[in-house]
């Protein structure tokens, strides 16, 4: 098993934990981002993003999206009433982000953790871009920093 395979397995396991924490059995791109942040990323750290700040940005995106639909939560976000059972499966946004990230590497064996993060950041619409925008993150600058990581690793 290659280094990236070990890393991917680790990130998917951590993302599954993040999904369970959210009360879902579907791993989505934002769960992958949280897992990468928990593991550490030079570009995320340089942008001032760690697991806690990303979780806060995602929670803000959730409440903002609900408010846009006319649903207003009073106070903290509700916790799931029952923990999900079973093994979380990859959702569409996670699968697409992983495919996009792997495609940015010339060959699978050239893939690095930065490529996986790049796949998430290249998503043009959805929860992750909205959360980063609401948090005031310059997504273009962050994406460019991650791209530099992918070329610096070779």
TrEMBL record:
Entry-linked InterPro entries: Clp_N_dom_sf (IPR036628)
Descriptive protein name: Clp R domain-containing protein
């Amino acid at each position: 098993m290659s280094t990236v395979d070990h890393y991917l397995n680790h990130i998917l396991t951590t993302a599954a934990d993040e999904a369970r924490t959210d009360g879902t059995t579907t791993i989505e791109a934002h769960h992958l981002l949280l897992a990468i942040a928990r593991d550490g990323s030079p570009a995320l750290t340089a942008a001032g993003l760690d697991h806690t700040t990303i979780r806060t940005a995602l929670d803000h995106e959730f409440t903002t999206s609900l408010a846009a639909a006319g649903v207003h939560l009073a106070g903290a976000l509700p916790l799931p009433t029952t923990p999900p059972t079973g093994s979380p499966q990859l959702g569409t946004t996670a699968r697409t982000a992983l495919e996009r990230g792997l495609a940015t590497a010339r060959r699978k064996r050239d893939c690095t953790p930065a490529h996986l993060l790049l796949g998430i950041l290249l998503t043009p619409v959805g929860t992750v871009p909205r959360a980063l925008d609401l948090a005031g993150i310059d997504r273009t600058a962050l994406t460019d920093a991650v791209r530099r990581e992918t070329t610096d690793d070779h």
